[in-house]
Design a protein that fits this description.
9% of the residues lie in helices and 32% in strands. The protein is globular.
Length: 388
């Protein structure tokens, strides 16, 4: 039998509905269950409007309408590609807020099935996080849709250590500090990403996430060098970093649907020494072409982007809130003082005087500090350029 994503079986075999041809506009009328969205040519399964969440399951047309909407090719449902409110742009989605509703949690727990274990992830996806310097199976996620919303479940059997080379314990992790414990299941709602506008040029807009969305190491190994194409590559080389690969692969694929991607530009990212805090920085790497990238030290000290021009000074514009989901991944968050709720976040700029460090912006608003690249408690603030 060929595995079917929803378990339907017809004629002694299974098929994938996503690979089947849907007959659209089956009946133009409404029946008791609601307007028919589509019918499968193979098994005649009917899909009704209420079976299709407001996002994620529609078959979007490639073209955006003149009034900035994407339209479903099956049912004609329309949805804004992006919204602009109070100077912020809301575009794409990512898990952010922890679910506290016991009813929703109960339903999601039931839908998630058996908990994963090392060697048997089941329906879950292994994050591939590190313990003791090696990628290990101990932390997983699953995405489930329920009542027109999408949720991410997070489950782990060991604490994620900081840095990647350490063993797992509460002493080496921030997860338990924020109420996330081993062998417990937590749910987070996917929500529109709030972007801050840094610059507008004609129809092109330069955006940075206005919150810390996740927690990733810059590069898994804090020491040693690599040889790539005959060149020596240090751990804080942004071009060859784990975080750049993750941003342009995992994050890009998960946060944006195919219509969203049509307005995201491929950006020539300047990684020269002048974008770091030291114009003679020999750790600077080649420029890159990216869909998603991190800001540089030069970016976060650029007054044209709304920042103070010196990383030594505390700057409210560099203070960013850490989402619940990022905390569950081990992102540091201040728990007292005037920067409570704010965290640390990576810049792409390598530190000039250590091959294993990269710059970070920190919770009280400075940007002159640096951190070991294999640290997992530094947050991720993606940046993109879009064409409106």
């Amino acid at each position: 039998l060929v595995a079917c994503n929803d378990g339907d079986e017809q004629g002694g075999y299974r098929h994938r509905h996503e690979d089947s041809e849907w007959i659209i506009d089956v009946e133009p009328t409404c029946i008791q269950q609601g307007h028919i969205h589509a019918e499968c040519r193979t098994c005649h399964k009917r899909l009704f409007d209420q079976d299709v969440p407001a996002s994620g399951q529609h078959t979007w047309k490639a073209q955006i309408t003149e009034d900035n909407q994407k339209e479903c090719a099956l049912c004609g449902y329309k949805e804004l590609v992006y919204e602009e409110r109070d100077g912020k742009i809301y575009f794409g989605e990512y898990p952010q807020t922890k679910v506290e509703d016991d009813g929703i949690i109960s339903v999601l727990n039931g839908k998630s099935g058996d908990r994963p274990v090392a060697g048997n992830s089941g329906k879950w996806t292994d994050y591939g996080y590190y313990i003791g310097g090696s990628a290990s199976e101990y932390m997983w996620y699953i995405d489930i849709e329920y009542e027109n919303a999408k949720y991410r479940g997070v489950y782990f059997t060991s604490y994620r250590p900081d840095p990647t080379t350490y063993g797992s314990s509460t002493l080496n992790s921030y997860q338990d500090d924020y109420g996330y414990y081993i062998n417990a299941l937590y749910w987070f709602k996917w929500e529109p990403i709030e972007w801050r506008v840094l610059e507008r040029t004609d129809r092109d807009v330069f955006l940075m996430s206005n919150v810390i969305l996740d927690s990733r190491q810059y590069y898994y190994s804090g020491g040693g060098t690599r040889s790539i194409d005959g060149k020596t590559v240090y751990p804080n080389n942004y071009k060859e970093s784990d975080i750049r690969a993750w941003l342009n692969d995992t994050f890009y694929e998960q946060a944006f649907d195919k219509v969203d991607k049509t307005i995201i530009k491929t950006t020539l990212v300047d990684n020269s020494a002048t974008t770091t805090a030291d114009s003679s920085n020999t750790n600077a790497c080649e420029n890159t072409y990216d869909k998603v990238f991190l800001l540089s030290y030069e970016d976060v000290t650029n007054t044209m982007y709304g920042f103070r021009n010196d990383g030594n000074y505390y700057d409210l514009a560099r203070r960013l809130r850490t989402t619940d989901y990022a905390q569950s991944q081990g992102a540091y968050t201040a728990t007292d003082g005037y920067s409570i709720g704010d965290g640390l976040w990576w810049l792409r700029s390598p530190y000039a005087y250590n091959h294993s460090d990269a710059f970070i912006a920190y919770s009280i608003g400075g940007a002159d500090s640096h951190c070991g690249v294999n640290s997992t408690y530094c947050g991720v603030v993606p940046a993109i350029k879009i064409t409106l």
